[in-house]
Amino acid sequence: MVIGSAPAAGSVGEVRTRYLDLPDPVRLDCGRELSPVRVAYETYGALSPRRDNVILVCHALSGDAHAAGVSAVRPEASTRDGFGAEDRDGTAGAGLGWWDGMIGPGKAFDTDRYFVVSTNLLGGCRGTTGPSSVDPATGRPYGPDFPVLTVADMVRTQRAFLDVLGIDRLAAVAGGSLGGMQALEWAILYPDQVDSIVVIASTHALHPQGVAWNAIARESIMRDPAWQGGRYHDTGRSPDAGMGVARMVGHVTYLSAPALGEKFGRRLQFADDLRYTLTEPEFEVENYLRHQADSFVRRFDANTYLTMSRALTYFDLARQYGGGALTQALTDVSARTLLIAFSSDWLYPPAASEDLYAALRSLGKPAELHVIDAPYGHDCFLLEERRQTPIVRRFLAA
Amino acid sequence: MVIGSAPAAGSVGEVRTRYLDLPDPVRLDCGRELSPVRVAYETYGALSPRRDNVILVCHALSGDAHAAGVSAVRPEASTRDGFGAEDRDGTAGAGLGWWDGMIGPGKAFDTDRYFVVSTNLLGGCRGTTGPSSVDPATGRPYGPDFPVLTVADMVRTQRAFLDVLGIDRLAAVAGGSLGGMQALEWAILYPDQVDSIVVIASTHALHPQGVAWNAIARESIMRDPAWQGGRYHDTGRSPDAGMGVARMVGHVTYLSAPALGEKFGRRLQFADDLRYTLTEPEFEVENYLRHQADSFVRRFDANTYLTMSRALTYFDLARQYGGGALTQALTDVSARTLLIAFSSDWLYPPAASEDLYAALRSLGKPAELHVIDAPYGHDCFLLEERRQTPIVRRFLAA
């Protein structure tokens, strides 16, 4: 909802995150039920009288409901440098939304036409029920007692949330990375309620090296003694050291090697002068990684990180729905599918989108694939707005 | 030296690591002097009367002096599975040497012809003076008081060591990864004493993403509270948690994504049954990484890891010797140069070897480059013995 009276051109203006409590428990793949469940959300644009113009945008591992506009709560705008993705992905409620370049009047997800809904995922730490929420059974934060989630659990929660809003059909479900997984899961779980999906820099199943990176990030958090088996809430300590390393690992996998080279090269912190130190950064890239780690731990909950990371490694359409065969898993999809991948993305490489495209086409499903030649790696989905916009607009208008 | 009376065919047989104390302090790039310095070493084959058949082999980050044969100390042979590189690289004094497939009678570095010398690097933890050695000033392990080293410091130590052995010239200096950096450094520091260098899966300067991975590994160690600022010796605690994560990061960078995919795919630990756990491995690759981490921390000193990692990120021939220009840095090289790189090595990609080749050729220096098309990533230099052997033998015989 637009709150500001004079939004900047192309901006949805000042926005505020809202909260909604689901009326029923959410049934989870692990066999448990979760209740109560609160969902944090934002909306942009206006719902049409026929309620047929809704686009659900889904965030990635460390995102939140604040996808567009300027937060009314903490209105300072985030700076957006060349590698601003991690910052926007991170500003989480403050400043510009994480996909502000894609959502707004005249933008890819055009709020002059569509009613765009964004929720914080189940398991999140930005307003939706997650491991840092209070467990009604104990009166204390769930911590490690929070259930281990799947992407399907997150999608079922979004479905229940939209039910409360009285929204039955979705014109589109869109997202990048883990967000794209949700779009795919929507098309399979609710084939009759999704007109189209926009799957960007995503996959039907993370490749084994991606599983390994995620495992390393989680190990780093859980090996930090301050994690305390996940019961760090209210102890005055949190696994910042391990979270920092997890973020550094993630960050390097989000960028391409050439992009890192272009931005930092092998430049030293102090001209050509080595300081012969193990503990202080010698290279600019080392200093940058520390900065990324420090700013991340200030804003993100470690148990939510573990939950999101686990869910995205579990995601495997062929295993879940196809008895091992991707084509089988996609048999009932009726949504038109737009796939966008980026040439330099080695965490979610184009090959996975090509697999999806081939499987959908072999089933005679309407699908489009665009592999954008861009140098910034996985973060392209947050950075390459200019080139994604015409593709998305044309696809949605079809 | 061959100790066993009946070595297996192609094996140098049973060997024993020896130790030598240098007569003089070693001057270091950081400005300090180090004394005393002990060097752990092994030799294979026989020194010719003219002392003109010496090959120095140089180990990588986590290696040691035990490059070939079977250790006489702990004679159990290490198993060598398809991904045995990390184990051999790791057996460190036990079982087969880390380059046993390349050193021995009739092998690439043929001990019927050459006298092969292998030392544990300065800063190491397998017999050569390093951070876990006793600081004579305090009577306790150096820990963080050990000087921060460069590859040149390691090479000057090898030079001083060979002086004691009465070896002036080297027929070849050979190594992979950090070992290849030493070979290059030898050719520049001692151009009149090196006939040839064999530089495998190495570089003139690690690319920025490699600098980042190394920074992450070191951060992981230093953020472990058990590191205690480096003074963990004699405390009964050591930064095993951080070292484990560092090793996992390293390990994934040593392998190619396709190789990891071929070996593990997305196979679950328990068939197709998710257990919905954050703390236990769900995927085989997760279990494998834990195993790698656990076995590594049992055998390697954290401060040595930091020292080696820092030295290999510092290494930059253009900065050190060329005022920024690689060609300038190589001007005085007189050694014949053999460069071998592997197509799937993304930590030390072929591009760096191509840079070296182009620079040497532009100077009219004798150089050969072979890019071997092989799938196992950086670890190829430890695994692809069969294809490296004829190249190395032909080069050395020339």
From TrEMBL, chains A, B:
Name the active site residues.
177 (nucleophile), 345, 378
Q: Among its keywords, does the record have Cytoplasm?
A: yes
Q: Give the family per the record.
A: Belongs to the AB hydrolase superfamily. MetX family.
Q: What is its EC number?
A: 2.3.1.31
Instruction: Describe its function.
Output: Transfers an acetyl group from acetyl-CoA to L-homoserine, forming acetyl-L-homoserine.
Q: Where in the cell is it found?
A: Cytoplasm
Q: Outline the subunit composition.
A: Homodimer.
Please report the name of this protein according to its UniProt entry. Answer: Homoserine O-acetyltransferase
Its pathway, per UniProt, is:
Amino-acid biosynthesis; L-methionine biosynthesis via de novo pathway; O-acetyl-L-homoserine from L-homoserine: step 1/1
**Which gene is the coding source of this polypeptide chain?**
metXA
Q: Which residues bind substrate?
A: 247, 379
Q: Which organism is it from?
A: Kutzneria buriramensis
AB hydrolase-1 domain span? 92-383
Which reaction does this chain catalyze? L-homoserine + acetyl-CoA = O-acetyl-L-homoserine + CoA
Which keywords does the record carry?
Acyltransferase, Amino-acid biosynthesis, Cytoplasm, Methionine biosynthesis, Transferase
User: Which Gene Ontology cellular-component terms appear in the entry?
Assistant: cytoplasm
Any Pfam family: Abhydrolase_1
Alphabetical GO biological process terms = homoserine metabolic process; methionine biosynthetic process
What is the predominant subcellular site recorded for this chain? cytoplasm
The protein's GO terms of the molecular function aspect are: homoserine O-acetyltransferase activity
